[in-house]
Amino acid sequence: MSTEQAPAAVNRKSRIGTVVSDKNDKTVIVAVVRAKRHRLYHKVIRSTKRYQVHDPENRATLGDTVRIEECRPISKHKRWLLADVLTERDVAEVAATEIDRSLVEEVQRSAAHAAEASGETSDGGAAE
């Protein structure tokens, strides 16, 4: 019999949610959606709960899917710790300059088309 004991495995609650705010330093707000059937009407009811989560390295950003675990109280409202970033937010593959160029060209084409349409109606009305 040794005086040392192996550390007991800690069974902590875990949730998966989406980061809805990352404005604070070392804190993110994670929304966890839960779906449950109504016991009488059998309609699926979705409820959302927002957790303040401790993120010491500021790894999570807005839109990330993360896994959080409960922990000791860190502050008045923070009782959850960021365990893992599962998927990072999806970012468009197209560069902003390409989007801007295509948008400008589209606006110019629509303006030219509108000018032609209004020019034809005024010319047609003046010729007759």
Structure description:
With 128 residues, the protein is α+β, with helices and mostly antiparallel strands. It folds into two domains: 14-87, Beta Barrel (OB fold (Dihydrolipoamide Acetyltransferase, E2P)); 92-128. 25% of the residues lie in helices and 34% in strands. It has one helix at 96-127, and strands spanning 14-21, 27-37, 44-54, 65-70, 80-87. A five-stranded mixed beta barrel has the order 1-2-3-5-4. Strand 2 and strand 3 form a beta hairpin. The longest helix has 32 residues, at 96-127. It is elongated. The mean pLDDT is 85.
Biggest sheet: strand arrangement: 1-2-3-5-4
Count of folded domains: 2
CATH class of the largest domain: Mainly Beta
CATH topology of the largest domain: OB fold (Dihydrolipoamide Acetyltransferase, E2P)
Q: Helical content, roughly?
A: 25-40%
Spans of at least 5 consecutive residues with low confidence = none
Offer a concise description of the structure:
With 128 residues, the protein is α+β, with helices and mostly antiparallel strands. Helix content is 25%, strand content 34%.
